[in-house]
């Protein structure tokens, strides 16, 4: 997180007090990222949602820093000397927290999924079991999240190539949900589902889904006794 919770609260309070337009606050932010942000008719809620997501992203592939752009936009939308001082402090805080351009620190510092559980403990992470247990409620939930994050076949293919996953057994003939279920099964068979999810959790374009995906990935199942 590039900004402290207290700083985010102050920014949200300023946006509410001065009636800043959420759309104008996002001007200049990567278009794909903006399109992935959750919508909300309530301006105050929308601003808070945007802040929480943007503050988690160090830099976009083009080197831009979304939260810094948001703050700079806010400086142009009006306010008094106190609000401008608060915005300037927030911008300095974001710049201090972010890694240098071209650095891999942003990826390396992202929280990964908790390590595998020891088998002798009688339980295992859902994502570490083979075959994948589709009867588990978090299995379906995880698949639905991935469908929402990457609905296009081209996006799924890009994810698979990044891991990489061999896709010769991947069935892409059905719906987006069918394709994701097949890709997850293929990843499990190759022992790469965890690696695939770790890769997704450092993709800033789907940052809105990171928390929920990580929650599903942490799910455990009880191993049957032989």
Architecture overview:
The protein is mainly α and 226 residues long. Helices cover 54% and strands 3% of the residues. It is built from 12 helices and 2 strands, in the order αααααααβαααααβ. The chain has a two-stranded antiparallel sheet. The longest helix has 17 residues, at 81-97. It is elongated.
Please outline the helices and strands.
Layout: H1 5-18, H2 22-25, H3 31-36, H4 43-54, H5 66-75, H6 81-97, H7 105-108, E1 123-125, H8 137-149, H9 153-162, H10 176-189, H11 193-200, H12 207-217, E2 220-222
Antiparallel strand pairs: 1-2
DSSP summary, beta strand count: 2
**Poorly predicted tracts of residues:** 100-111
- Strand residue percentage: under 5%
Order of helices and strands: HHHHHHHEHHHHHE
> What is the structural class?
mainly alpha
Radius of gyration: 20 Å
SS field, number of helical segments: 12
User: Within the largest sheet, what's the order of strands?
Assistant: 1-2
Main beta sheet, described? 2 strands, antiparallel
* Share in helix: 40-55%
- First CA to last CA: what distance? 44 Å
Question: Which terms would index this structure?
Answer:
single chain, 54% helix, 2 strands, 12 helices, mainly alpha, two-stranded antiparallel sheet, 226 residues
Task: Give a quick summary of the entry.
With 226 residues, the chain is mainly alpha-helical.
């Amino acid at each position: 997180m590039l900004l402290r919770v207290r700083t985010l609260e102050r920014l949200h309070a300023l946006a509410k007090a001065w009636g800043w337009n959420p759309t104008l606050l996002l001007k200049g932010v990567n278009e794909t990222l903006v399109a992935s942000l959750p919508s909300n008719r309530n301006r105050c809620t929308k601003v808070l949602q945007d802040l929480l997501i943007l503050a988690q992203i160090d830099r976009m592939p083009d080197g831009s820093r979304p939260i810094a752009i948001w703050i700079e936009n806010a400086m142009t939308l009006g306010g008094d000397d106190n609000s401008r001082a608060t915005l300037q402090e927030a911008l300095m805080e974001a710049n201090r927290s972010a890694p240098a351009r071209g650095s891999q620190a942003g990826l390396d510092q992202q929280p990964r999924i908790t390590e595998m559980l020891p088998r002798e403990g009688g339980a295992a992470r859902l994502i570490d079991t083979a075959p994948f247990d589709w009867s588990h409620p978090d299995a379906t939930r995880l698949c639905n999240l991935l469908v929402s994050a990457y609905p296009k076949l081209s996006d799924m293919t890009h994810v698979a190539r990044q891991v990489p996953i061999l896709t010769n057994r991947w069935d892409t003939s059905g719906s987006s949900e069918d394709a994701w279920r097949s890709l997850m099964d293929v990843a499990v068979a190759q022992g790469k589902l965890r690696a695939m999810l770790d890769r997704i959790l450092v993709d800033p374009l789907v940052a809105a889904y990171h928390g929920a995906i990580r929650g599903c990935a942490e799910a455990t199942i009880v191993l049957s006794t032989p």
